Predict the structure.
Amino acid sequence: QVQLVESGGGLVQAGGSLGLSCAASGGTFMHYAMGWFRQAPGKEREFVAAIDWSGSITYYTDSVKGRFTISRDNAKNTVYLQMNSLKPEDTAVYYCARGGLFSGGSSNQNGYDYWGQGTRVTVSS
């Protein structure tokens, strides 16, 4: 059974930084694309970033381009999301998810089959 466990969330002031991690177990992590999504209070879950199975291709939603960086360490079965220049509108629960096998990654939530439990990020103004 595949398990994804996020960590690294917390409270930060606007303009600050946080680094999220997602540790995977129970599957062949290195062969799958991975993604980060978030759900703000009262809003639907939305795409944040994705990385292909090899780590060479990344995608971002426009609102985080230039501020967030997704990366992965296949030796550690972990995907990361480094978040800089945080804004109050980045406040949300952040989820990592497993994408397709040997896939380039996707912004479509239907392309992900396993999800973590989420980690909360709060950005104060």
Notes: The first strand starts at residue 3 and ends at 7.
